[in-house]
Amino acid sequence: MTNQIDALFSALADPTRRAVVEQLADGAQPVGALAAPHDMALPSFLRHIEVLEDAGLVATRKQGRQRMVALRPKSLDPIDGWLDRQRALWQGRLARLEAVARRLEFATNPMPGKQMPGKDRSS
Question: What Å distances lie between residue 101 and 95, 97, 104, 110, CA to CA?
Fold first, then answer.
C-alpha cells in the first residue's frame, strides 16, 4: 500500500498533472483538449499523461482518431484513507493540547473574567 500511495503522491506532485486531474473531473477528454491550456510540446505533455496512467490515476483509450483520457476516481481512495488517518491523529493531538492549555489557563486564573486578588488589570 505504501508504494501505491508514494506513486500517487509522486504523480500528483507536479502542477501540470494536478491540473490534468482537475480538468478530468468533468469527464473524459481528448489529449489535445487536455494539452491546450499547457504551454509545452505535445511529447512533453504526453509524458505527464503516461505518469498519471502509470500511477493508476487515469486510463487512456483510442476513440476514432483521438486518444481519450479518463480519470479513475477510485484510484484516489488510498490517499483519502491516508488523509483520514492523519486527520484523526492530528485532531486527537490538538484536542489534548487544547485540554492542557485550558487546565493551565484555569490554574493561573480559576475565575475567568474576574480579577485575581493582588493583580492589577491595567498591566
Answer: 10, 6, 5, 13
Give Cβ neighbours of residue 75 (< 8 Å, ≥ 6 apart): 8, 55, 56, 57
CATH number, domain containing residue 9: 1.10.10.10
Domains in the chain: how many in total? 1
Contact criterion met (CB below 8 Å) for 32 and 20: no
Check if the beta carbon of residue 31 is closer than 8 Å to that of residue 49: yes
This prediction has a pTM of 0.70
pLDDT at 101: 84
For residue 122, the model assigns a pLDDT of 54
51's CB contacts (< 8 A; 6+ apart) are: 11, 14, 17
* Grid coordinates belonging to 58: 487515469
Enumerate residue ranges in the chain where pLDDT < 50. Answer: none
In a domain, 115, yes or no: no
